[in-house]
Amino acid sequence: MPTPCEADEDRIRRQIDKIAEGLRDKDLEGLERLYTTDVVSFDVEPPLQHVGVAAKARNWADVFAFFETVTYEVRDLVLVVGGDVAFGHAFARLSGTLRNGTATSGMWVRITYGLRKIDGAWLIAHDQVSVPLDIASGTGVTDLEP
Questions:
Q1: CA-CA distance, 93 to 77, in Å (whole number)?
Q2: Of 55, 39, 60, 61, which is closest to residue 113 (Cα–Cα)?
Q3: Among 109, 102, 112, which Cα is nearest to 143's?
Q4: Which of 30, 45, 65, 82 has its CA 20 to 30 A from that of 136?
Q5: DSSP-derived secondary structure letter, 50
Q6: How far apart are the C-alpha atoms of 70 and 20, rounded to whole Å?
Q7: How far apart are CA 24 and CA 41, in angstroms?
Q8: What mean pLDDT comes out for the span 3-29?
Q9: Residue 72's CB: how many other CB atoms inside 10 A?
Q10: Cβ atoms of residues 17 and 88 within 8 Å
Q11: Angle in degrees, CA 90, 87, 5, rounded to 5
């Protein structure tokens, strides 16, 4: 029988899996349910921060505007769970077919999650997506793989 921490870790992993499902199904409402209402997201696109579930949903809606089909992969997810808070980090890649028919393999990014357990459900309260920076050129490095 799993310990309470192991059971919570399993629940969190299923929540993260629901991001991939929601993107694949283009289910914006389903994606919104994975986040706290006051989520703070540091995504790769401007501005520096996106505050609130509506702002996070706009990011995902932008993905749907560009992509005909979407695949989202999370790899090497490591979680630390304690009480009503948890954090994790992983690599993620968004890929698929663009609206113009072009297939793209996307790019690998680093992602960090901060989660809160609210009324028994694990919700994402913070996420941060980043790519390494080539300091000499001032550009993001987008061709790395885990």
A1: 13
A2: 39
A3: 109
A4: 45
A5: E
A6: 9
A7: 21
A8: 93
A9: 19
A10: no
A11: 110
**pLDDT score of 6:** 87
| Residues in the chain, total | 146
Residue type, 66: F
pLDDT-derived band of residue 2, with 50, 70 and 90 as boundaries? low
65 in Cβ contact with 58 (< 8 Å): no
In whole angstroms, give the CA distance from residue 49 to residue 30.
Answer: 22
Cα dihedral 26, 27, 33, 39, rounded to 10, equals 30
Q: At how many degrees (to 10) do helices 4-24 and 53-66 cross? A: 40
In degrees, rounded to 5, the angle at the alpha carbon of residue 40 between the alpha carbons of residues 94 and 53 is 75
Summarize pLDDT for 41-96 with one digit per residue, the tens. Answer: 999 888 999 999 999 999 999 999 999 999 999 999 999 999 999 999 999 999 99
If you write DSSP's letter for every residue of 29-57 in order, what string do you get? HHHHTTEEEEEEEE-SSSSS-EESHHHHH
Q: Is 104 in contact with 95 (CB distance < 8 Å)?
A: yes
Chain position carrying tokens 């793989």: 145
